[in-house]
Amino acid sequence: MPVIDVVCVHSLSRVHAAEFDTLVGQDNPFIEHNFLNALEQSQSVGAVAGWVPSHVFARRNNLLVGAIPAYVKDNSFGEYIFDWAWAQAAHRARIPYYPKVVCAVPFTPASGPRILLHPDDPDKDSVTESLINGLFSLAESSRASSIHVLFCTEAERNTLVSRYGFLPRITFQYHWYADHYLSFEDYLSRLRAPARKMIRRERRQVQDAGVEVDVVPGRDLADNQWDLLYRYYRSTAREYGANPYLTREFFSVIRESQNQRALGIFARQNAKTIAGSLYFEKGRHLYGRYWGRSEDIPALHFELCYYRPIEYAITRGHTLFEAGAQGEHKIKRGLMPRATYSAHWFRDQRFAASVSGYLDREAQVVAEQMTALSACGPFHRNS
Predict the structure, then answer these.
(1) 244 in a domain, yes or no?
(2) Which of 167, 181, 242, 264 has the fewest beta carbons under 10 Å from its own?
(3) Cα dihedral sign for 255, 258, 260, 262?
């Protein structure tokens, strides 16, 4: 079989979108060429942001058969699998922690494949091995202390741990999964009475405030609506003391290159838009990303960020809705704890042993948390 050639590429513009997207599968919009390239073209990632694109590509007979989107980083911002404590521990031990290699979608805590393989390649194991060796070469050439594969699939995590010496980490988010719901009312019928009453009350609060909600496909989003979404994104980041990582140009590039994946949900009161949220969808999956508002209306966040997208997902036949990171309040509204996976490799083996012990203890705590939180779910016990 022909030799696999592996290279590190510092810009996705060097590969055609159609060629790259043969690797990405059916349900995740964030690993598509257009999304990742928009981050680069808008300078949301780059040397200034501390995310230097360093993607690993594998070719066989000049055909792209595999890729790992990767970045060399000098900070831990925008990852959502938090390792600040590890960086501090390394500093105390006088072990350099940065730079590091991160395999992830920047600023996007959504699970999906990180080792991208051509579906028709007859020897995917060899491609995987070549890509991982390419990651190790990248870590060597960049003098990185570590490699972090974030929000990967469980199978990828297992492969990295069993074959390549990575350490496993488990965290969790709150996701909504379809269960043959015929309508939003049918969905509510699967919930216990307190949850049904709460949701109906919160939706009435929004209606009684004279709020109207518009669901707008990405192709139909106007200039002023994209402006609003960016302003809402910035204002929410400021409100919570977070860095607004994405530039205005990112929203402009996405409008042109990936509007078929976007969805806007807006709230109007007295003919004035007062809130908005941005979603991405592909295949049978829906992902909530950014939200903001200019007026405080009780339960408006729940309507735009949970109830209306769930209603939309049911109508469209989606099987999964991810509403973003964190938030125990999601449980009462039907978004349940689901495991998320990552894998971590460290050059310094003494430091790796310390992190391994921490991860073992953390995994036990996470499992206990997920069990306890799942018991608080709103569904009938026989659902």
Answers:
(1) yes
(2) 242
(3) negative
**Considering the domain boundaries, does residue 166 fall inside one?**
yes
Radius of gyration, alpha carbons of the chain: 22
Task: Tell me the per-residue pLDDT of 192-212, one tens digit each, with 9 for 90 and over.
Answer: 999 999 999 999 999 999 999
| 331 in a structural domain | no
Residues 205 and 95 in one domain: no
Domain count, the chain: 2
Same domain, 202 and 159: no
> Is residue 68 located within the same domain as residue 212?
no
How far is it, in rounded angstroms, from Cα 197 to Cα 337?
22
**pLDDT band at residue 382, thresholds of 50, 70 and 90?**
low
Note the pTM of the prediction, 2 decimals.
0.96
- 243 closest CA partner among 44, 39, 40: 44
Q: Which domain holds residue 67?
A: 4-172+339-374
Categorize the per-residue pLDDT at 383 as very low, low, confident or very high, splitting at 50, 70 and 90: low
| Cβ(60)–Cβ(128) below 8 Å | no
291 and 360 share one domain: no
Quickly list DSSP for 84-95. HHHHHHHHHTT-
Q: Check whether residue 294 and residue 348 sit in a common domain.
A: no
Tens of pLDDT, residues 96-119: 999 999 999 999 999 999 999 999
Give the rounded percent of residues in the chain with a pLDDT score beyond 70.
99
Contact between 113 and 154 under an 8 Å Cβ cutoff? The reply is no
